[in-house]
Q: What sequence folds into this?
């Protein structure tokens, strides 16, 4: 049997977490939907309404048909609870780029 290697393709799912008094937290689930490992994965920017995440953690390589979760925190100044906001994410990995934008209701 011959198995074709398909270039890594990354997708994103989002979960908003209950905020603390000073932060809004979210979890991004980044999934590699291809057979080949995604290497050198790096999120270069994650913003809610142009407010940057406090700290963007390093991401390991993501094996084929695998995923990793990334926890992020934003200052409460990113928006008011219950308001709709735009979340954007941009990143790179060997051989590709990833971008994601969605409308969220702030917790």
A:
């Amino acid at each position: 049997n011959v198995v074709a290697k398909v270039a890594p393709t990354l997708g994103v799912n989002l979960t908003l977490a209950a905020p603390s008094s000073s932060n809004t937290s979210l979890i991004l689930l980044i999934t590699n939907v291809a057979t080949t490992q995604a290497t050198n994965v790096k999120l270069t920017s994650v913003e809610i309404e142009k407010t940057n995440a406090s700290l963007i953690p390093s991401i390991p390589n993501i094996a084929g048909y695998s995923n990793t979760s990334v926890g992020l925190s934003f200052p409460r100044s990113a928006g008011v609870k219950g308001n709709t906001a735009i979340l954007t994410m941009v990143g790179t990995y060997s051989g590709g780029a990833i971008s994601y934008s969605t409308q969220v209701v702030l917790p």
Q: What stands out?
A: The beta strands are 10-17, 23-32, 42-48, 51-52, 66-75, 84-93, 96-105. The radius of gyration is 15 Å. The mean pLDDT is 85.
